Amino acid sequence: MRVQSAITALAVLVTTVAAEDRVSYDGYKVFRIDTHDNSEEIHRLIDGLHAVEVSCGESDHFELAVAPEDVEAFQALGLDASLLSEDLSVDLELEGPVESFYESEESNYTIEVRQQALPALSWFSSYRPYADHATFFSQMQAAFPQNSRIFNVGNSHQGRSIYGIHLWGPNGQGNRPAIYFHGTVHAREWISAPVVEYLTWQLINGYRNNDALVRSFFNKYDFYIVPFVNPDGFVHTQSSDRLWRKNRQPRSGTSCVGTDGNRNWNFQWSTPGGASTSPCSETYRGQAAGDTPEIRALTTFTNSLRTRGIKLFIDWHSYGQYILLPYGYNCQARAPNHNAQMSVAAGYSSAIRAVSGTRFTYGPSCSTLYATTGSSPDYMGGAMGAEYAWTVELRPGPGSGSSGFVLPAGQIAASGAEQWEGIKYVLNTI
Ligand SMILES: [Zn+2]
């Protein structure tokens, strides 16, 4: 009892400290800024403000959340800006609390694992703490013991395992081309992990229930699913700063932390215009291609998939509801099978929309959204020969402004369900 209450007291203390360390967005106002091709100058002007960019990248505009003490200074700059949100913290509340699944279900967990039961679908009713996700994948693996394994790609900067689950069908593992998913390279894009988990759950469930369509996928492919490419960043969003994007790697000569893993891959890395060379930027590319522990480990792992080939790669992000095809580094560059990719993407978009009307725009990454260099899909398509290499930007839609990274928990299952219909179409068509 005494030990228990000491632990409880410690837990309370830790919680209190964590709450005090948390970045508050109380009173932050969110603006949409039109750049009028003057992006560099605008960034120079806003450089000294307490503000955070809340866009995924930049086309002719971007979104900026400005701290209350600097709103006046921001407005005095006279930029072409419109107000999207009066108070970012109110938008963040819409997400609902992060609730532990396995703590409340603890008594059932051992029994469920022994019975090889899949996790209950109520998993998808809330956002979950980081530790729960590993338990979720352990339970999934235990429910599919002859046809799956948990693998470790390598470790993050802070030493967390970058883990994944490998699923296979008849005739053993590693004999078929890869369907390869990455999630959460951008830490604040919380919907990406649960959607990837939803797809994994459906694949295993379908195989176990002898669903003919799902079985046909396993006859053709092995699945490699990495839900947290950037675990340090994700943990940071849960403990300290909900809107953190990059990894947590410091760099010498700057107090700014973090590199954008999706600008760090070794393909067209040094091409100008699709990433930042400033360590303080949200799209900082690093000092050299692949110089983050996360992308270095994933590059080695990805190379190992080349023997059987990568049929389809998807990097799952939010937000904006886009299906983005090659390429990001150049708005004229197209994949050799571009027409086939456009056709599959069109069918994918229609299959999503048929579920509950959600519209996903599709097209080549650079010309549809904005330029990106050193991105994972460009690397997969351009350097690894992946036949289809896409970015999918999940809910909410492009007009969501300030609350784009915050999708109410009530929409997690619906996001998963529409993607499952879309992915079934894709896997049945490619
Ligand atoms: Zn992203």
TrEMBL record:
GO terms for molecular function: metallocarboxypeptidase activity; zinc ion binding. Keywords: Carboxypeptidase, Hydrolase, Metal-binding, Metalloprotease, Protease, Secreted, Signal, Virulence, Zinc, Zymogen. Its cofactor is Zn(2+). Extracellular metalloprotease that contributes to pathogenicity. This is Zinc carboxypeptidase A. It comes from the Eukaryota. One of its GO terms (biological process) is proteolysis. Belongs to the peptidase M14 family. Residues 126-430 form the Peptidase M14 domain. InterPro entries: CARBOXYPEPT_ZN_1, Peptidase_M14. It comes from Sodiomyces alkalinus (strain CBS 110278 / VKM F-3762 / F11) (Alkaliphilic filamentous fungus). The active site is at E393. It holds the Pfam family Peptidase_M14. Its main location: secreted.
